[in-house]
Write a structure and sequence with these properties.
The chain is of the alpha+beta class and about 725 residues long.
Length: about 725
């Protein structure tokens, strides 16, 4: 018996990071030698012996190492010449089996496994090479294995997942991805199968059968690329073009007081009402243009902007002790007395200078004249400020009085007109309100209580957004000036701990609630599970408001985020929202702010913007489709109907789904591929998609997963 002792990670070879993959299509399998080992002799699966199910091209380990194979690293282990290998996978150990000169032309890796039961998937398998090649990591989830006898499981991992590019390799790496309690794990019957000898069960997906349908005969609708927008982020987050974003928004509370002449902002209530230096808007526009992104620019209309980069609203030296002070500037208070009393800031001139519509007009003129040779403005969309109904809180040092219907309309007309005169063809969006209450009521109503709602009553009892649209339509009729082109609202789920600043809860209960909360975007039967307790159906509601009050205006979700950024539910919710934006013809949408580099949520974007790592994206036209409950299915095609990309989201945390896809009126499918992201993954991986003829395909959808289908088509 040979004992292995703690060789270094990956046996001293370069570590592989980046391409991460979770299980998608489970294929039951095993490998064989001429003489089965004692622990598996005579065992069959699905009526087939292992010899019948596979033709083994290369025995790796079967009660002893195969010819030319050696164990090169891992945790403590015991290899036998007459039985299974015993490996200690505790403390992130790896077991690595190596052999020189392996090609990429195999069907897959088959093996048997015996270990103490673990609730969550714990084992990851990947190929490796002493060269620089990077191979996907494949998680061995329960749906991939079949119980055979005495606690043993059979596992088969196809090369379409382990090695989709069929690169040469020289080792197989088994690694624990989470702690396990078992001292020893038994592995045996490990082999590389022949490429043409995949088991017959591999031709059909495993799981609960479902039907998906794409109807290319129905009317398709144009998809605006600007729905794949973000709102920037910090140094720990990727730049928008690194995650495939198509548009970027310059927005947030600080932009309400951005001084374009000084590149100065005020951080408002978010950080002690302080002025700070800002990166210049010109750099923002240049960066976006250089990387092919469109830009959306928030335009202040509060009437004041930062006068410098150092002033602050509530000096302790003037107002006395306060509840909190800036940890780095002892004189900078938060405007709240020690007793909790809100302090009156006095004159806005302590931090700010006037910013009338004419000043904004000069800014937009400066922007549009930057490149006189271009017929297009560097700004795709001008947004009229940020969440004005919250000004009396976020910017109370300069606007302490609650905003009402009339002031919102007056400022919209004044500043919108200034933009229109400076950029006649510009898209202008408003009112950029923060959430549910201010779709219906003003800040004045809130201050007096929604039960009384005096401001709404004074305006005929009409909900704020509808009154806003109706009034602007009437203004255009009488003045011949169109002030806004896009109805812009912000939306965040309000259920407890779902959003929570982007993090949110990731326990099973909260994750499931997060996914249900996405139904508030569209589902008329869904009653929101928060203090709202109403049917929100935001996107169809916005379209109805526009149709009733200002036909022709587009709709935008200027900020949104469903939380769970570190969890698969965050990726799924992000993918779900983007699909709904495409389905309902949204003009633009901006995730707040940008998912972090290693987050799950960024994968929700990549499903639409770079699912294959080579620029694969959701296409130009939205195509109607059908899917059963617990599955969302969003389909796109290109301009010439030669290419179809679909995103399928399995909302079930438990069910592996065997999906049969029917293409109706789409032409014949030719080239095809699929990519999947699921729980425990670090990114999308290639997965099996099988064509049945030219108009039907089969694919498995793993529990809680996002799967992208990429099909080439002939003309119908």
């Amino acid at each position: 018996m040979t004992r292995l002792q703690s060789l270094g990670p990956d046996g001293g070879q370069p570590g592989l990071a980046v391409v991460a993959i979770a299980a998608m299509v489970g294929l039951t399998a095993a490998c064989s030698r001429a003489q089965p080992s004692k622990e598996s002799k005579g065992v069959t699966t699905a009526g087939l012996t292992q010899q019948e199910r596979f033709e083994i091209a290369d025995v790796v380990y079967d009660s002893g190492l195969g010819m030319g194979w050696r164990a090169v690293g891992g945790g403590a282990g015991e290899l036998s010449d007459a039985g299974p290998a015993k490996i200690d996978f505790r403390e992130d150990a790896r077991w690595i089996l190596a052999k020189k000169g392996l090609s990429g032309e195999y069907g897959g890796v088959a093996f048997r496994l015996k270990e103490a039961k673990v609730e969550a998937p714990w084992l990851e398998v990947r190929l490796d090479s002493t060269k620089s090649s990077i191979f996907p990591r494949v998680t061995v989830s329960r749906d991939r294995s079949t119980d055979v006898q005495d606690g043993w499981e059979e596992v088969f991992l196809p090369m379409s997942e382990l090695n989709p590019e069929r690169l040469p390799f020289d080792r197989i790496v088994f690694r624990a991805i989470r702690p396990i309690t078992s001292d020893w794990v038994l592995l045996n019957r490990i082999g590389l199968t022949r490429a043409a000898a995949t088991p017959s069960a591999a031709s059909a997906p495993r799981g609960k059968p479902i039907s998906l349908l794409v109807d290319c005969r129905a009317d398709a609708t144009k998809i605006s690329p600007s729905i794949f927008g973000v709102a920037g982020g910090g140094d720990d987050r990727p730049r928008p073009w690194q995650m495939g974003a198509a548009s970027e928004r310059w927005g947030g509370n600080a932009t309400t007081r951005y001084n374009w002449e000084l590149n100065a902002i005020n951080s408002a209530q978010d950080w002690f009402f302080e002025n700070h230096a800002s990166s210049p808007y010109t750099q923002f526009l240049r960066d976006d243009a250089a990387h092919g992104l469109t830009s959306a620019l928030t335009i202040p209309m509060i009437g004041w902007v930062a006068k410098d980069v150092t002033s602050y609203a509530f000096p302790v030296s003037v107002f006395g002790p306060q509840a909190k002070t800036d940890p780095w500037r002892a004189d900078v208070g938060n405007g709240v007395g020690p007793s909790g009393r809100t302090l009156d800031a006095g004159s806005p001139t302590r931090t700010s200078v006037p910013a009338p519509p004419e000043w904004i007009g000069r800014w937009v003129t400066q922007i549009t004249s930057t490149d006189a040779s271009s017929s297009e403005s560097p700004v795709y969309e001008y947004i009229l400020d940020n969440e004005p109904m919250l000004w009396s809180g976020t910017h109370r040092d300069i606007h302490p009085d609650p905003l009402g219907y009339d002031e919102l309309l007056e400022r919209t007309i004044q500043y919108g007109t200034a933009i229109r005169k400076a950029a006649p063809l510009a898209l202008i969006a408003g009112p950029a309100e923060w959430g549910w209450p201010n779709y219906f009521f003003s800040a004045k109503d809130l201050a007096a209580s929604f039960g009384r709602r005096p401001d709404r009553a004074a305006h005929g009892g009409v909900p704020l957004v509808e009154w806003y649209l109706r009034s602007l339509r009437e203004y255009e009729r009488t003045s011949r000036i169109r002030v806004i082109d896009v109805l812009d609202l912000h939306y965040y789920p309000q259920a407890e701990n779902v959003y929570a600043g982007g993090a949110g809860g990731v326990d099973p209960k909260t994750a499931a609630l997060r996914l249900r909360s996405t139904r508030s975007l569209w589902d008329a039967s869904y009653v929101d599970e928060s203090w709202i307790r109403d049917t929100i159906r935001l996107l169809p509601r916005m379209k109805e408001w526009v149709e009733r009050n200002y036909p022709g205006v587009g709709i935008s979700i200027g900020e949104w985020n469903f939380g769970g950024e570190a969890h698969v539910s965050g990726a799924m919710a992000t993918a779900e929202a983007l699909g709904r934006f495409a389905e309902f013809g949204v003009s633009s949408a901006f995730y707040w702010t940008t998912p972090s580099k290693d987050s799950a949520s960024i994968q929700g974007f990549l499903a639409y913007r770079n699912f294959d790592g080579k620029g694969g994206r959701f296409l130009d036209w939205y195509v109607p489709s059908f899917a059963p409950a617990d599955v969302s299915f969003f389909v796109s095609r290109d301009e010439g109907s030669r290419h179809l990309v679909a995103v399928a989201i399995n909302m079930s945390p438990e069910d592996l789904l065997a999906a049969r896809l029917d293409l109706v009126g789409c032409g014949a499918a030719t080239q095809h591929a699929a990519y999947a992201y699921s729980q425990g993954s670090n990114g999308f991986r290639a997965t099996a998609l099988t064509l049945e003829g030219t108009t039907r395909a089969d694919v498995s959808l793993e529990p809680w997963s996002v799967t992208v289908l990429d099909l080439g088509l002939t003309r119908p």
